[in-house]
Structure formats: structure tokens, C-alpha cells
Amino acid sequence: MLENIRLSFQGIWSHKMRSFLTMLGIIIGIASIISIVSTIKGTNEQIKQNLVGAGNNNVDVKLNQGGSEAYMDQGITGVLPLTEDQKERIRSLDHVEHATFYRYRTYFSTYYGNKSMDGNLRGVDTEYLATCGYVLREGRNFIDQDYTDFHKVAILDDIAARTLFNGESALGKTIELGTEPFTVVGVIQKADAFQPVINSYKDYITYSGEEMGSVLIPTDLWPVVYVYDEPEHATVMAERVEDMSQVGKATEEIMNEAIIGGASTAETDGAEEEGTSSGGNSSGLAYKAADLLERARSLQEVSQSTNQQLLWIASISLLVGGIGVMNIMLVSVTERTSEIGLKKAIGARKRRILGQFLTEAAVLTSIGGVLGVIVGIILAQVISKVSGAPVAVSVPAVIGSVLFSMGIGVVFGLLPSVKAANLNPIDALRYE
Question: What is the Cβ-side half-sphere exposure of residue 345, based on CA atoms within 13 angstroms?
């Protein structure tokens, strides 16, 4: 085998230009496939990153009715408060790193002096900051005494602090939530500031969220602002992005035990498909996880057919390259007819001749495959620079392309190799 490989390199080097032109079809085909696959993978990773965010792996589980988010002021009944046992079971689920439970309202008015802000109001537990990826910029987090002694304290995010205090320190200031005064004890910001990559107006509509300030209060203080309790939602942090769907489903099942009538995930899906809503009882009412991975997969599948067509078109170059290899190998057999006859005359067997020419074809296309991979990676980077499309080189695609190009050499080199192996030694020696 090593001798065959050495002879193959010797033959390729002795006909450099002819060998390069033979490999050109393979190079173009492999380069096209690598650049297309790299662009597809980069786009898919960007879609996932835009939706999931900067690695927080969070899954939101919220109360839904008839496929849309449910609120208590819609007259909803039949939802029991989550028990400490249910919360602990969720925190103990496999692949769960953190879990937090909270109540919230949007477009809630917060006042400081003559300034106001319409933003989010959240009643949170002590795990909220760690789970949702916040760090303290000023002040402190909520402590156990804030919950047990019902301290009227609040934490602002950086957007709310900037809106209400315009660069001044918010610590110790008193804000009004509804008609109730709350003292600001902390200001928070995201640990990793993440912005989705926006390449078009369609991307802006798909990925951009409305920037609103948030005010956090201890969840036990929620009845101070609202005269009744609202059902708690959950945010669960999975260990890995790949675990998000599994963690979301498991959290759903536990939280749905709080629905009177025991709404299951299957029942919820059925209710959503039918679009039913009971408006006052537990029918169609259930906790539902926002499966961002599923949404990402849906967006990725939109262009799947186009991507497959591009790959098929690129594969035509490999077919053309394979035919070129077969043609040049037939020429090589013809040129080396006397050499083949001499080898057979001194005892070389058919399989030895067959192996030599198959090896030469495989080496020729393998070199073309390696060069094609290099050109494909460079081409993908050029496409990224010119069009702004993200790229991510796929290692399996690189390895597969080289192996596939080697296979092309074996397949298309088989006919010339068989022809060489079956030559009559006497006729071969007399050939000029």
C-alpha cells in the first residue's frame, strides 16, 4: 500500500498540470459544499443565539389560556398557588442549574417626584438575579427579612434607574408603585449585555424586544400593590442549551399540578389546536414553556429546501470532477500499457495492478478534496465579509468531504483500474 501511494505521488508530480486540471472539478465541488455548509451552519447558530441569548439557557414557563398568556384580571379562576414542595421539585430536576418564581405586570406606572415610567413590575424571590443573569451595580439584593417582615423595598434595573433618576444614585430614594411608597435598595444590570444580530428589517421584527425598565419587589409584597395574588410564573436555567426543551417540559408538568382539574401538557396542546377558552374555569388553562429551541428550529427549516437545492447543484461539480478523473485515468492506462505488460510478465497479479491504479485515483481526488476544503473555508470567509452572513466551519463536513472525495476516486477510478488489470501481458508488451 505504501509503495502504491509513493508511486501515485510520483505519477502525479511528473504530470503536475494535467493532475491539477483533473483535480479542479473536485476542488470546485468540495469548496462549494464547504462554503455552503459553513454558511448554513453559521446562520442556524445565529438564529439560535439570537433567540436563546448570551448563554443564559433560560426557559420561561408562564400561565396560558387558549394559546395566549393569561392574567388574573381576565376573570380566571382555578389556579392554586405553587407550593414549596413543587418549587423544590423543579429546582431538583435533572439538568436544572437555577430556578426562580415570580409575578409580573407590564406597562405598570412607577413614579418618582414629577417623573414617571411605564415598565415591568415583578414580584421576585431571592433566586431571580442569579437565574436571569443580573448582577448588582449598586446596593444589595433582597434578604430574608424583606419577605418575612414585609419591607417595602425595591430594586431597579439600569433602564428604570436611568429613566427615573437621570444619572443620579437611586439608592435610598423613595418611589411610588401605585399609591404605595417603596425604598430603592439596589440597582441591577445584565451580567452579559447581549444584542441579537440584526441584518435586515425582518430580523429586527423577529428578534428585537421592546426595551422597558423593570422594578423588582419581594414577591410577598405583591398583595400590597395588587389586592389579590396572581399565579406565579417560573424561569428555569438549564445546564446546557440542548437541555432547555427537556427542562421546560418537566417544569410544565409540575406547575400544571396547581391547575384545578389537573390540566396536562397533552390537554393543553389539544386546547391550543382547537383554540378553545373557557374564560372563567380551568378548561384550556395551563402552564406552558416558551420553547425557544423549537422556534429556532422552525426558523431554520424555512430555508431548508433552498439550502438542499444549493447542495445538489454543488454536487454536480463533484460528478463532473469524477468523470474527469475517470477520463485521465483511462489516458494513464493507455500511456502505461507497456509498463503494465512488463509487470504482468514478471509475475504481477491482477489485484496488484488494480490496487495501484485505484490508489492513484484515490490519492489524486484526496489531494483535490484537501485543496477544496482549504478553498471552501477561504471562500466562506470571503462570503461572510462581503454579505455579512455568519459562517461556522463544520468539522464533520470537512472530514466527510475529504473521505467523499477519496470515494469518488475509488468509484470513478474503478473502470480504468479494471481495464489495466485485465490487459493481456503479450498484447501489452507489443503495444507502442
Answer: 12
Q: How far apart are CA 386 and CA 88, in angstroms?
A: 51
Q: Which three cell numbers stand for residue 140?
A: 444589595
Q: In 177-303, where does DSSP find H-type helix?
A: 201-207, 222-225, 244-255, 265-274, 292-302
Beta strands at 180-190 and 115-124: parallel, antiparallel or unpaired: unpaired
Grid cell in block for residue 81: 398557588
Give the type of residue at 154.
Answer: A
Q: Beta strand pairing status for 285-289 and 134-139?
A: unpaired
Sign for the CA dihedral angle at 6, 7, 13, 17 comes to negative
| Dihedral (CA of 55, 56, 57, 62) sign | negative
Q: What DSSP letter does each residue of 51-92 carry, written as one string?
A: HH-SS--EEEEEEEETTEE--GGGT---BPPPPHHHHHHHHT
- Name 120's bridge partners: 214
Residue 224, C-alpha cell as written in the block = 400590597
- Single-letter amino acid code for the residue at 188: I
pTM beyond 0.85, yes or no: no
- d(Cα 148, Cα 161) in Å, to the nearest integer? 26
pLDDT digits (tens, 9 = 90+) for 187-240: 999 876 545 454 554 444 444 445 689 999 999 999 888 866 678 899 998 888
